[in-house]
Amino acid sequence: MTGRTAHAAQPALARVLSGRMLLFLVLGDVLGSGIYALIGQIAADVGGMIWVPFLIAFALAFLTGTAYAELVGKYPRAAGAALYANEAFRRPFLTFMVGFTVLSAGITSTATAARAIGGKYLAEFMAAPPVLVAVVFILLTAVLNARGIEESARVNLVLTVIELAGLLLIVGIGVHALATGAGKPERAFELRTEGPAPLALLAGTTLALYAMLGFENSVNLVEEARRPRRDLPRALFGGMFIAGTVYLFVAFTCAMLVDPDTLAGSGAPLLEVVKASAVPVPSRLFAAVALVAVANTALMNMVMASRLVYGMAAQGAIPAVFARVLPGRRTPLTAIGFVTVLAVVLASTGQLAGLADTTVVLLLLVFFVVNSSALALRREPAPPGAYRAPTWAPALGALSCAVLASPLVHREGTVYLRALGLLAFAAVLFHAQKGVGSRFRTRESSGAALQRVSPPSD
User: Fold this and answer.
1) Gap between the Cα atoms of 340 and 140, Å rounded
2) Smaller CB count within 10 Å for the chain: N or C?
């Protein structure tokens, strides 16, 4: 039985997501651990001009977002980037590698958020081994994921409102500082770098891009959206615009109120802003908001990664067992279990910064393929009412992704080694599955031949 045939026997995913729910899913996936945990690292690269890498990252992410918005309208199925690569290039190996790379990026992002849970924000309440906290948290998100997409979306809605409120609080602190003359706005225009300024901005942009990631996950919910061709592009662009605008104001406030060296040395940079402000906000309250934000990032990545595994299995790219849907809840239970195990392994063995940078490198490779796919599929007519990107947008998107993924950005060699290791593992899986499939087809054809030449039994 092929994966496609197996999928046909399974119940369909429930179409319960409205346009508003999709918007909050995108916003909740973009907002989160990146801005709360990594803004100090950006300050270490560029000094007070933290907002500049965020502005560049938003522009680059928007270019790739146009490719996703167009392709999801043409091919409204849950496999996302892997599906687009297959439609554009018809290379099974490339399709598999793209799908597995997206999967790896989602899981490394989940592991990143899980490790951040046990960091300095949690230290405001209790001391606990970060690995243990990460593992327990991942298991809890898996349980919620298995209960159903509607339940996950509702929890995401609540968590997104909380984390957005936390970021708006930082913006409000900045406005108060400007009004009272307490801040130093000129510091936000000071560029401090140890090397050439363009390279420093490039390094800061890659970290800021991690904070913008998540928009691409929305296309994996297309089979659970009520009106996917209309609502998904709107939710994608709307979520990116809101998140990007908030990030710019938060970055400006951070530089205005806290010295970049202090931000760079802190594991909870936004908490430093709260402590430095004249606004009476309890540290524990804001730490709780930060933990909610990080938790929401992990939850959304687990939801999206499991749907991606389901979509790949439904298309026959991986074994059909991963397309099994829990009848009562109508959730991809086997896929959820698979991504949970991988996330636990990564969270138990990796560190926060390395996992975050690995996520960025993996997704930049995927974005390059997605932008290239959009260009290759320009000849395909779009359905009525579907979004169509200007040709220059995915072209610039592909170029920018290639530059940011290259060694021009000074990142640790272990990041490339981890990414290459995951890609090598994917290649081994592909060829192993191909070999098993070939042997299965050989036995099937041999059995059919024997039936044709053997006399019927009594």
Assistant:
1) 10
2) C
